Amino acid sequence: MTSVVKFFLIGGPLLLIILIAIAGFAYSRILYLNLPIPQSLALFAVVLPIITGISMQGIYGLIQRASQNEQYQITVPFVVVISFQLIYETVVATLALTYIIPPSSLHCGLEDRWAKLFHAKNGEAIRKIQNAFNCCGLHSVKDRAFPFPGQQPSSCAETLHRANSCFGPWRQSEQTQAGLLFLVAILVFVVKAISIINLLTSSNWKRSTIRRIIKRITNSSGNEDEDPEDNRASNRRLIEDNAAEGPYRDNPENSTTVIVEDRGIHDQTPRVLPLTLTENLWRG
What we know:
Blueprint: H1 3-32, H2 39-67, H3 76-98, H4 107-119, H5 123-133, H6 156-160, H7 167-200, H8 203-225, H9 228-245, E1 257-261, E2 270-274, H10 275-283
Antiparallel strand pairs: 1-2
Helix pairs in contact: 1-2, 1-7, 2-3, 2-7, 3-7
Protein name: Tetraspanin Tsp3
Keywords: Membrane, Transmembrane, Transmembrane helix
Subcellular location: Membrane
Protein backbone atom coordinates (compact mmCIF):
# COMPACT_ATOMS: atom_id res chain seq x y z
CA MET A 1 0.00 0.00 0.00
CA THR A 2 1.55 3.31 -1.09
CA SER A 3 1.96 6.32 1.17
CA VAL A 4 -0.60 8.26 -0.84
CA VAL A 5 -3.23 5.58 -0.31
CA LYS A 6 -2.43 5.55 3.41
CA PHE A 7 -2.88 9.30 3.48
CA PHE A 8 -6.29 9.01 1.84
CA LEU A 9 -7.39 6.29 4.20
CA ILE A 10 -6.13 7.85 7.44
CA GLY A 11 -5.02 11.46 7.03
CA GLY A 12 -7.62 12.54 4.50
CA PRO A 13 -10.78 12.04 6.58
CA LEU A 14 -9.06 13.41 9.69
CA LEU A 15 -7.94 16.54 7.87
CA LEU A 16 -11.41 17.10 6.46
CA ILE A 17 -12.96 16.78 9.92
CA ILE A 18 -10.50 19.36 11.25
CA LEU A 19 -11.28 21.73 8.39
CA ILE A 20 -15.02 21.37 8.98
CA ALA A 21 -14.46 22.16 12.68
CA ILE A 22 -12.39 25.23 11.82
CA ALA A 23 -14.98 26.54 9.37
CA GLY A 24 -17.76 25.82 11.86
CA PHE A 25 -15.93 27.72 14.60
CA ALA A 26 -15.46 30.72 12.31
CA TYR A 27 -19.14 30.60 11.37
CA SER A 28 -20.22 30.58 15.03
CA ARG A 29 -17.97 33.56 15.85
CA ILE A 30 -19.29 35.50 12.89
CA LEU A 31 -22.82 35.01 14.19
CA TYR A 32 -22.01 35.71 17.83
CA LEU A 33 -20.00 38.90 17.19
CA ASN A 34 -22.22 40.17 14.36
CA LEU A 35 -19.24 40.51 12.07
CA PRO A 36 -19.93 42.00 8.62
CA ILE A 37 -18.89 38.77 6.89
CA PRO A 38 -21.71 37.16 4.89
CA GLN A 39 -23.05 34.07 6.59
CA SER A 40 -23.38 32.40 3.20
CA LEU A 41 -19.60 32.65 2.73
CA ALA A 42 -19.02 30.90 6.05
CA LEU A 43 -21.55 28.19 5.16
CA PHE A 44 -19.85 27.63 1.81
CA ALA A 45 -16.56 27.15 3.66
CA VAL A 46 -18.21 24.61 5.99
CA VAL A 47 -19.63 22.61 3.07
CA LEU A 48 -16.40 22.74 1.05
CA PRO A 49 -14.53 19.96 2.94
CA ILE A 50 -17.59 17.72 2.67
CA ILE A 51 -17.64 18.09 -1.10
CA THR A 52 -13.91 17.45 -1.12
CA GLY A 53 -14.38 14.22 0.83
CA ILE A 54 -16.86 12.94 -1.73
CA SER A 55 -14.61 13.76 -4.66
CA MET A 56 -11.58 12.26 -2.91
CA GLN A 57 -13.35 8.91 -2.89
CA GLY A 58 -13.52 9.08 -6.67
CA ILE A 59 -9.85 10.01 -6.86
CA TYR A 60 -8.93 7.10 -4.60
CA GLY A 61 -10.87 4.77 -6.87
CA LEU A 62 -8.93 5.95 -9.91
CA ILE A 63 -5.63 5.51 -8.10
CA GLN A 64 -6.61 2.00 -7.05
CA ARG A 65 -7.55 1.03 -10.60
CA ALA A 66 -4.29 2.49 -11.90
CA SER A 67 -2.33 0.43 -9.35
CA GLN A 68 -4.01 -2.71 -10.72
CA ASN A 69 -2.86 -1.89 -14.27
CA GLU A 70 -6.40 -1.33 -15.45
CA GLN A 71 -7.11 1.09 -18.24
CA TYR A 72 -6.96 4.65 -16.97
CA GLN A 73 -9.99 6.70 -17.86
CA ILE A 74 -11.17 10.17 -16.86
CA THR A 75 -14.87 10.59 -17.40
CA VAL A 76 -16.50 13.87 -18.34
CA PRO A 77 -18.59 14.07 -15.11
CA PHE A 78 -15.42 13.63 -13.07
CA VAL A 79 -13.68 16.47 -14.92
CA VAL A 80 -16.74 18.68 -14.45
CA VAL A 81 -16.82 18.00 -10.70
CA ILE A 82 -13.11 18.73 -10.32
CA SER A 83 -13.40 21.95 -12.32
CA PHE A 84 -16.44 23.07 -10.34
CA GLN A 85 -14.69 22.41 -7.06
CA LEU A 86 -11.58 24.32 -8.11
CA ILE A 87 -13.75 27.30 -9.03
CA TYR A 88 -15.64 26.90 -5.76
CA GLU A 89 -12.42 26.95 -3.73
CA THR A 90 -11.07 29.96 -5.62
CA VAL A 91 -14.24 31.98 -5.03
CA VAL A 92 -14.34 31.20 -1.30
CA ALA A 93 -10.65 32.05 -0.87
CA THR A 94 -10.95 35.30 -2.84
CA LEU A 95 -14.03 36.51 -0.97
CA ALA A 96 -12.49 35.63 2.39
CA LEU A 97 -9.35 37.52 1.45
CA THR A 98 -11.36 40.72 0.89
CA TYR A 99 -12.26 40.71 4.60
CA ILE A 100 -8.60 40.44 5.61
CA ILE A 101 -6.73 43.02 3.57
CA PRO A 102 -6.39 45.90 3.34
CA PRO A 103 -7.40 46.79 6.91
CA SER A 104 -8.55 50.26 5.87
CA SER A 105 -11.24 48.76 3.64
CA LEU A 106 -12.88 47.09 6.65
CA HIS A 107 -13.83 50.39 8.27
CA CYS A 108 -17.03 50.94 6.32
CA GLY A 109 -18.39 47.44 6.92
CA LEU A 110 -17.84 47.59 10.67
CA GLU A 111 -19.24 51.12 10.87
CA ASP A 112 -22.39 50.17 8.99
CA ARG A 113 -22.95 47.04 11.06
CA TRP A 114 -22.61 48.90 14.39
CA ALA A 115 -24.88 51.67 13.17
CA LYS A 116 -27.58 49.17 12.21
CA LEU A 117 -27.39 47.50 15.61
CA PHE A 118 -27.56 50.87 17.38
CA HIS A 119 -30.51 52.22 15.38
CA ALA A 120 -32.34 48.92 15.81
CA LYS A 121 -31.74 49.23 19.58
CA ASN A 122 -30.22 45.76 19.53
CA GLY A 123 -28.59 46.11 22.92
CA GLU A 124 -28.00 42.37 23.29
CA ALA A 125 -25.81 42.21 20.17
CA ILE A 126 -23.75 45.26 21.19
CA ARG A 127 -23.42 43.93 24.74
CA LYS A 128 -21.98 40.63 23.40
CA ILE A 129 -19.38 42.54 21.39
CA GLN A 130 -18.43 44.73 24.36
CA ASN A 131 -18.19 41.78 26.73
CA ALA A 132 -16.17 39.69 24.27
CA PHE A 133 -13.48 42.35 23.94
CA ASN A 134 -13.90 44.06 27.33
CA CYS A 135 -14.62 47.37 25.64
CA CYS A 136 -17.28 50.06 25.32
CA GLY A 137 -18.54 51.88 22.23
CA LEU A 138 -17.23 51.74 18.68
CA HIS A 139 -14.62 54.47 18.22
CA SER A 140 -14.65 55.65 21.83
CA VAL A 141 -16.08 54.44 25.12
CA LYS A 142 -19.00 56.82 24.69
CA ASP A 143 -19.63 56.22 20.95
CA ARG A 144 -23.05 54.48 20.79
CA ALA A 145 -22.16 52.20 23.68
CA PHE A 146 -24.53 49.99 25.61
CA PRO A 147 -26.38 50.77 27.84
CA PHE A 148 -27.81 53.17 25.30
CA PRO A 149 -27.61 56.76 26.43
CA GLY A 150 -30.61 59.00 26.76
CA GLN A 151 -29.89 62.65 27.13
CA GLN A 152 -26.57 61.82 28.81
CA PRO A 153 -23.56 59.88 27.41
CA SER A 154 -23.44 56.15 27.98
CA SER A 155 -22.24 55.05 31.41
CA CYS A 156 -20.61 51.83 30.07
CA ALA A 157 -17.05 52.92 30.87
CA GLU A 158 -17.87 54.16 34.36
CA THR A 159 -20.12 51.24 35.23
CA LEU A 160 -17.93 48.43 33.87
CA HIS A 161 -14.58 50.20 34.37
CA ARG A 162 -13.48 49.88 30.77
CA ALA A 163 -11.19 52.29 28.97
CA ASN A 164 -10.95 50.83 25.44
CA SER A 165 -13.24 51.14 22.43
CA CYS A 166 -14.35 48.11 20.44
CA PHE A 167 -13.33 49.04 16.89
CA GLY A 168 -9.76 47.72 17.00
CA PRO A 169 -10.40 44.26 18.50
CA TRP A 170 -13.65 43.91 16.54
CA ARG A 171 -11.81 44.51 13.26
CA GLN A 172 -9.07 42.10 14.30
CA SER A 173 -11.70 39.44 15.00
CA GLU A 174 -13.16 39.98 11.53
CA GLN A 175 -9.74 39.45 10.00
CA THR A 176 -9.19 36.34 12.11
CA GLN A 177 -12.45 34.66 11.16
CA ALA A 178 -11.99 35.55 7.49
CA GLY A 179 -8.45 34.17 7.74
CA LEU A 180 -9.81 30.86 9.02
CA LEU A 181 -12.20 30.65 6.06
CA PHE A 182 -9.34 31.48 3.73
CA LEU A 183 -7.19 28.79 5.37
CA VAL A 184 -9.89 26.17 4.90
CA ALA A 185 -10.23 27.00 1.19
CA ILE A 186 -6.46 26.95 0.65
CA LEU A 187 -5.93 23.64 2.43
CA VAL A 188 -8.76 22.03 0.50
CA PHE A 189 -7.24 23.35 -2.72
CA VAL A 190 -3.81 21.97 -1.78
CA VAL A 191 -5.25 18.54 -0.95
CA LYS A 192 -7.14 18.49 -4.24
CA ALA A 193 -4.09 19.60 -6.22
CA ILE A 194 -1.86 16.96 -4.61
CA SER A 195 -4.47 14.30 -5.35
CA ILE A 196 -4.72 15.25 -9.02
CA ILE A 197 -0.94 15.53 -9.44
CA ASN A 198 -0.44 12.14 -7.84
CA LEU A 199 -3.11 10.66 -10.07
CA LEU A 200 -1.54 12.04 -13.22
CA THR A 201 1.99 11.02 -12.19
CA SER A 202 1.07 7.51 -11.10
CA SER A 203 3.78 5.10 -12.25
CA ASN A 204 1.32 2.59 -13.73
CA TRP A 205 -0.56 5.32 -15.54
CA LYS A 206 2.66 6.82 -16.83
CA ARG A 207 3.89 3.48 -18.15
CA SER A 208 0.62 2.74 -19.91
CA THR A 209 0.43 6.24 -21.32
CA ILE A 210 4.03 6.15 -22.58
CA ARG A 211 3.41 2.78 -24.21
CA ARG A 212 0.35 4.11 -26.00
CA ILE A 213 2.21 7.21 -27.17
CA ILE A 214 5.22 5.20 -28.41
CA LYS A 215 2.97 2.73 -30.19
CA ARG A 216 1.03 5.54 -31.86
CA ILE A 217 4.23 7.29 -32.95
CA THR A 218 5.76 4.05 -34.21
CA ASN A 219 2.68 3.14 -36.25
CA SER A 220 2.41 6.59 -37.77
CA SER A 221 6.11 6.75 -38.63
CA GLY A 222 6.00 3.23 -40.07
CA ASN A 223 3.15 4.16 -42.39
CA GLU A 224 4.91 7.33 -43.50
CA ASP A 225 8.26 5.63 -44.16
CA GLU A 226 6.82 2.71 -46.13
CA ASP A 227 8.08 2.78 -49.74
CA PRO A 228 6.16 1.30 -52.71
CA GLU A 229 9.45 0.07 -54.21
CA ASP A 230 10.14 -1.92 -51.04
CA ASN A 231 6.69 -3.48 -51.28
CA ARG A 232 7.32 -4.62 -54.86
CA ALA A 233 10.71 -6.01 -53.94
CA SER A 234 9.19 -7.89 -51.04
CA ASN A 235 6.51 -9.35 -53.29
CA ARG A 236 9.14 -10.53 -55.78
CA ARG A 237 11.11 -12.23 -53.04
CA LEU A 238 8.00 -14.04 -51.83
CA ILE A 239 7.25 -15.29 -55.34
CA GLU A 240 10.80 -16.48 -55.87
CA ASP A 241 10.81 -18.25 -52.51
CA ASN A 242 7.58 -20.03 -53.36
CA ALA A 243 8.96 -21.07 -56.71
CA ALA A 244 12.08 -22.47 -55.08
CA GLU A 245 10.14 -24.48 -52.55
CA GLY A 246 8.07 -26.26 -55.16
CA PRO A 247 5.94 -25.73 -58.25
CA TYR A 248 2.30 -24.94 -58.00
CA ARG A 249 -0.12 -27.50 -59.49
CA ASP A 250 -3.86 -27.29 -59.98
CA ASN A 251 -3.88 -31.07 -60.47
CA PRO A 252 -0.72 -32.67 -59.12
CA GLU A 253 -1.21 -35.92 -61.12
CA ASN A 254 -1.77 -34.48 -64.60
CA SER A 255 -0.16 -31.10 -64.55
CA THR A 256 3.33 -29.73 -64.73
CA THR A 257 4.49 -26.28 -64.08
CA VAL A 258 6.29 -23.99 -66.46
CA ILE A 259 7.92 -20.76 -65.44
CA VAL A 260 7.08 -18.07 -67.97
CA GLU A 261 8.86 -14.80 -68.02
CA ASP A 262 6.63 -11.84 -68.65
CA ARG A 263 8.49 -9.23 -70.56
CA GLY A 264 6.13 -6.48 -69.57
CA ILE A 265 7.22 -2.91 -69.32
CA HIS A 266 6.46 -2.31 -65.67
CA ASP A 267 7.47 -5.62 -64.08
CA GLN A 268 10.35 -7.93 -65.09
CA THR A 269 9.54 -10.56 -62.46
CA PRO A 270 9.17 -14.22 -63.54
CA ARG A 271 5.77 -15.60 -62.87
CA VAL A 272 4.77 -19.20 -62.11
CA LEU A 273 1.81 -20.43 -64.12
CA PRO A 274 0.05 -23.83 -64.28
CA LEU A 275 0.59 -25.92 -67.37
CA THR A 276 -2.93 -25.46 -68.68
CA LEU A 277 -2.62 -21.71 -68.57
CA THR A 278 0.81 -21.90 -70.19
CA GLU A 279 -0.48 -23.97 -73.12
CA ASN A 280 -3.29 -21.49 -73.67
CA LEU A 281 -0.79 -18.69 -73.76
CA TRP A 282 1.42 -20.44 -76.36
CA ARG A 283 -1.55 -21.41 -78.49
CA GLY A 284 -2.96 -17.93 -78.33
